[in-house]
Specification:
It is built from no helices and twelve strands. It is mainly β. The mean pLDDT is 89.
């Protein structure tokens, strides 16, 4: 009897479908999810504070799912290997609210078309937004796709 399984490879943030034959041993690893707050970035290292005990840790940018959308004070979930305490991945919320620092002004009358323009966010990332969005507005960004979701009313 074969077993079909989708393995989530946390250290590389990928899903790997695989079929295992009977008798294959799989080493189960335990992970622990903890909530942290982003403090600051130093090169490729991101520094975080544990929300429970205020202990600080840092992780490499390579294991963060959307580092371009992370701002100071952002709460994230970090998954740790239960035995080695090694950080495996850092997950931002599905949506984050970010302020637009610069975008070209929208032209009057262009709100009916489905066209987009570039907008630079407070984190330095650039996303496509509808023409009616202006600088200094706050938008909701989908961290999984990196796309504009909606305007946020303040």
């Amino acid at each position: 009897m074969d077993i079909y399984l989708v393995v989530i490879w946390l250290s590389f943030s990928c899903h790997l479908p695989n079929t295992f034959t009977a008798g294959v041993k799989i080493d189960i690893q335990r992970v622990e999810r903890r909530q942290y707050q982003f403090l600051y970035k130093d090169g490729n290292l991101y520094h975080f504070m544990n929300m429970q005990d205020f202990e600080q840790t840092f992780i490499d940018e390579a294991i963060i799912n959307a580092p371009q959308f992370m701002k100071e004070g952002q709460e994230v979930d970090i998954l740790f290997h239960d035995e080695t305490e090694t950080a495996l991945t850092c997950e931002l919320p599905a949506y984050v609210n970010l302020k637009i620092t610069y975008t070209e002004p929208g032209e009057r009358g262009n709100t009916a078309t489905n066209t987009f323009k570039d907008a630079k966010l407070e984190t330095g990332a650039t996303v496509k937004v509808p023409l009616f969005i202006n600088s200094d507005e706050t938008i909701k960004v989908d961290t999984r796709s990196g796309e504009y979701s909606e305007r946020v009313k303040e």
